[in-house]
């Protein structure tokens, strides 16, 4: 028997996540679209894609889970649970896909000296959705299974179903939805760091004034890139931290039949959903141009 306080606590946390997640991500969308002249850039368009995904979680995912918590898990029918799980899996995978695309965009900019066009940024955003659907659709068509989780407060992959076809889908999902994108992100940043280190070494090894001046300008450019890189790294770390407990519990449930207590079942799921709050905060405080536009359009004194 699950204590009432677990459902009450879950409902309150979900309400806070939904409200903050919606308004913070809406502010990002509003400012970027409103100030297209200054902010309509490839990296920002990928962030817009991420904000759209987070807004869907805020207006659909959290409220339905909130109602499920209020009803002590009595909200879900089989069909409702399946489609909720499909939607949330698509959006969650879309999040890591968007963050991966941001790392690739930074790698192209810094390491390969290639600037994406706005059109190509839109294509990358579309590719993220295709990638997300390719991982979330299999249970809908019979490979893998969706079901209730977290004391019936939410629905996701049926981690506690030990059938072989579900196990193969879980391995597929974790490899392409977690291990592979994180590996791409890490490889991108290692390559960027190596490139920036070589640029710095070149500056230190040249004493001719004109050459030193040229590389000094180059380094200033790199420093501007570095601010964006730090922002993307923070988003990546934030995403991994918020989703790691959920991943560990899910794997423990499937592979080790872990008898988790109620709070251990619920809190990782809620912590994962809270990721929709952190991205717009990191973006706002790490992007000087966005802060300037934000203060302008919301009439905040400088």
UniProtKB/TrEMBL annotation:
Keywords: G-protein coupled receptor, Glycoprotein, Membrane, Receptor, Sensory transduction, Transducer, Transmembrane, Transmembrane helix, Vision
Keyword Transmembrane helix: yes
Assigned GO CC terms: membrane
CDD domains: 7tmA_Opsins_type2_animals
Subcellular location: Membrane
Membrane topology according to the record: Multi-pass membrane protein
Pfam families recorded: 7tm_1
Gene Ontology biological process terms in this record: visual perception
Highest taxon listed in the record's lineage: Eukaryota
Residue stretches spanning the membrane: 6-33, 45-71, 83-109, 121-141, 169-192, 232-256, 262-285
Any GO MF annotation of the entry: G protein-coupled receptor activity
Boundaries of every G-protein coupled receptors family 1 profile domain copy: 24-283
InterPro entries tied to this protein: GPCR_opsins, GPCR_Rhodpsn, GPCR_Rhodpsn_7TM
Signal sequence, renumbered to the chain: none
Assigned protein family: Belongs to the G-protein coupled receptor 1 family.
Name of the protein this chain belongs to: G-protein coupled receptors family 1 profile domain-containing protein
